[in-house]
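Why should sequence recovery work at all? Because a backbone constrains its sequence more than one might expect. Tight turns favour small or flexible residues, buried strands favour hydrophobic ones, and helices have their own preferences. The token representation captures these environments compactly. In the example below, the structure is given first.
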């Protein structure tokens, strides 16, 4: 197993951890931890895909990262707004 495989495995593992956690109601799908796991996992999977020049997954995982980042920012902003009210 080379470093590309290790990076990709960790990334996909984090995405799956978020998915399983949400499926079994251990993690809420609008929580910061859910979006953070998906964001870091997507970033690592994007890097691994880029390193092996597999462009369809660079696009897929890069999009996964960006959507998770937006979700995290919205969640953090909503939480901050709720505390201010």
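From this structural description, the recovered sequence reads:
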């Amino acid at each position: 197993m080379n470093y590309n495989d290790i990076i990709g495995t960790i990334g996909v593992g984090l995405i799956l951890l978020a998915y399983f956690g949400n499926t079994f109601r251990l993690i809420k799908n609008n929580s910061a931890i859910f979006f953070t796991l998906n964001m870091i996992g997507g970033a690592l999977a994007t890097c691994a895909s880029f390193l092996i020049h597999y462009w369809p997954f660079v696009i897929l995982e890069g999009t996964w990262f960006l959507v998770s980042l937006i979700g995290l920012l919205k969640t953090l902003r909503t939480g901050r707004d709720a505390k201010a009210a």
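A few observations help interpret the result. The radius of gyration is 14 Å.
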